[in-house]
Amino acid sequence: MVSKFDLLYPVFLNEGLTTVQLVRKLGKTPYDYNKFYKHLKQLEEDALIEIKQNKYFLKKAERTRKFIKVIDFCVKNNIDYSELFLEKTVEFIELGLKKTVLSDLPFDNKTVSRISVFLAKHGFLLVESKKPFTAKIVYSDFLETVVELFKGKVKVKCKKIFQDVNEKKLSSQIEKEFSNYKKSSKKININDEVRFIHRSLSLEGNTLTLSETKRLIKENIPAKTRTFKEMQETVDYKKALDIFITDESALDLQKVLFFHETAMNSLKAGAGQIRKQNVRIKGNPDFKTADWREVPRKINELFAFYEQNVYKKLKAFEVVQIASFFHNEFQRIHPFVDGNSRTARALFAHTLMLKGFPLIAFPAGFVEQYMNLTKLSKKRNDKHFELFMEQLVLHSLKQTNQKLKYN
Length: 407
Description:
The mean pLDDT is 94. A hairpin with a 2-residue loop joins strand 1 and strand 2. Strands 1-2 form a two-stranded antiparallel sheet. The protein has a two-stranded antiparallel sheet with strand order 3-4. By secondary structure, the protein is mostly helical. The protein is globular and about 70 Å long. It has three domains: 56 residues, Arc Repressor Mutant, subunit A; 76 residues, Arc Repressor Mutant, subunit A (Orthogonal Bundle); 222 residues, Fic-like fold.
C-alpha cells in the first residue's frame, strides 16, 4: 500500500512534475490519481513539499532535508521506511535511545517481536534475551534523526556497543553461537556475498543501492542512473572476493596483492602495488597512516603476527580478536594508494572464514560506529575496535543461526 512517504522521494528525484506526470513517472494508472493527489496534499500540509502552478517541489527546509536523507539511506539499504516510521517503531527506538537497556516495554509481545525482528535484521538492535525481553539499541545519528522527525529531540543515554561490555559474557556468547552455527551450517551456503560487497563499497562512496548491486551481480543488469566506474568497481570487487573467500588456505602478502590488483582494476596506477608515496585520509587529518618508507617493514611484521596466530587452535572469540587486530593494523598501515579499507574488510572476513565462520557482512545499523572507529576516528583504540567487532560477529552469528532454523 502506497503511503505519503512513498511520494516524497519521487518528488525529490523529479521536482517540477504535476500529479498526472508523477503517476506516469512511477508507472501507475489513472486510477491511482486520487490516491496520489491525497498523499501529495498531506505532504504539503506537513510542510515537506510545496505546490507552484500545480507542480510539486520540495520545501526548502531542514526538516525536509532530514526526511530525504533518512529515506535515501533506507532506499540504498533495502530498509522498509514505512515500517521504520510506524508510531510504535519510533516509540520503541526512542525508549532505546533514552535507556542503556530495553526491558519491560509498554507494548504487547506481538509488537515487541515485530519491531525487534525488523530492527535486529538491519543491525539497529542487539537482542540479548527474548524471555524476558532485553535488548540494546545500536546508537546512530540516523536513529536519533528518525525519532527527532516524529517526536522531537531526544536525550540520548544509550551507550556505544563497545562501552561497558562484560567481556567474559561476550566471549561466552560468541562461543555458544559459533558452536550452534557449526552444527547447523553443514551443506548449507548461508553467505550473503551481495550484502558484503554492497556494504564494503558503499562505505567508500559507491552509490549503488543493495537492490542494484544484486541485479548487477546476479543478473548482469546495469543500474541506469549509476556511473560505469561504480558498476565496474562492483564487478571487480566481486571477482576478487570470489577468489578470496573460496581459498581455504592461509593468507600471505602475494594473495593480498593479487586481491587488491583484481579489486582495484579500475585504478590508473597502483593496483596490486605497495605504495611509494605518503597518503592521507580525505577529511580526517587525525587518521595517521604509515610513512611509505616504513610500509614494507610494517606489513611484513603484520603478516608475521598473522602466521604466528592463524595456525593455532583458537577459541571462536580469539579468532575474532586476531582478525580485528589484523583489520585495524592493515588499515592503519595503509599499504596501497587506494582501496585499503575494502581490502581490510576482506582480510577480516577471510581470516574468520578460514576458521569456520560465515561471511560476516556489516549491517546498516553498525556502519556509523564502525566508521568512527576506523577512517573517521580521532584516535586509535584497538580495544574498542576489538569489542565492536566481537559484537558485530555475535550479532551476525545470531542472525545467521536464526535463518538456518528455517532452511
